């Protein structure tokens, strides 16, 4: 059985966007494309209606490319349990209210038993300073959180 990975919107954005002039972003884009080409088939990939909504925003052509990539992925349902855990992450794990949707990404991956949450959002999701508290909150709510990581961290050997 393959490990299950939830793709947060930044991964799809980096995968489909024109190469950035910002060297760090361009490197992240290259790593994401490499992961997509060499590693994605080793995982069962999931997203959510939240990812679809975020990916559909902005430039129509760019949104179309993002949505095309997401189309074959299985969708995780936004359940009451996920909403409740997301609220807990905001109130108990120092995720700012303005980043409530980031908390919902974490909650969705957690409630649905994903092995990995793949993201380039290192401000509110793949953040080493809050990761411990996120784990504590998820555990206190009766869930085991996924490994939250970037595509670079999931490249394998």
Folded structure, characterized:
The chain has 157 residues and is an alpha/beta fold. The chain has a single domain, classed as 3-Layer(aba) Sandwich (Rossmann fold), CATH 3.40.50.1010. 52% of the residues lie in helices and 11% in strands. It contains seven helices and five strands. It has helices at residues 9-16, 23-38, 49-56, 60-70, 80-92, 100-111, 128-140; strands at residues 4-7, 44-48, 74-76, 116-118, 147-149. A five-stranded parallel β-sheet has the order 3-2-1-4-5. β4, α7 (128-140) and β5 (147-149) form a beta-alpha-beta unit. The protein is globular and about 40 Å long.
Features:
157 residues; 7 helices; 5-stranded parallel sheet; Rossmann fold; globular; 5 strands; 52% helix; alpha/beta
Whole-number radius of gyration? 15 Å
Low-pLDDT regions: none
User: What do we call the CATH topology?
Assistant: Rossmann fold
User: How many helices?
Assistant: 7
Multimerization status: single chain
- Chain-averaged pLDDT: 95
- Total separate domains: 1
Helix content: 40-55%
Q: How much of the residues is beta strand, in percent?
A: 5-15%
> Class by helix and strand content?
alpha/beta
**General form:** globular
Number of strands: 5
Order of helices and strands: EHHEHHEHHEHE
Distance between the terminal alpha carbons, to the nearest Å?
A: 19 Å
Spatial ordering of strands, largest sheet: 3-2-1-4-5
What is the level-2 CATH architecture name? Answer: 3-Layer(aba) Sandwich
Q: At the first level of CATH, what is the class?
A: Alpha Beta
The CATH superfamily bears the name 5'-nuclease
Largest sheet: 5 strands, parallel
């Amino acid at each position: 059985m393959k490990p299950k990975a939830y793709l947060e919107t930044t991964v799809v954005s980096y995968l489909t966007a024109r190469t950035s002039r910002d060297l760090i972003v361009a490197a992240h884009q290259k790593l994401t494309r490499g992961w997509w080409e060499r590693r994605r088939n080793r995982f069962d990939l999931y997203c959510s209606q939240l990812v679809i909504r975020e990916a559909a925003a902005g430039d129509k052509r760019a949104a179309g490319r993002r949505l095309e990539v997401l189309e074959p992925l299985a969708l995780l349902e936004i359940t009451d349990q996920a909403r409740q855990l997301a609220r807990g992450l905001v109130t108990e794990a120092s995720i700012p209210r303005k980043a409530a949707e980031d908390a919902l990404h974490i909650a969705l991956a957690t409630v649905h038993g994903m092995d990995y949450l793949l993201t380039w959002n290192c401000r509110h999701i793949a953040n080493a300073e809050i990761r411990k508290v996120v784990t504590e909150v998820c555990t206190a709510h009766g869930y085991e959180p996924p490994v939250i990581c970037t595509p670079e961290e999931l490249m394998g050997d």
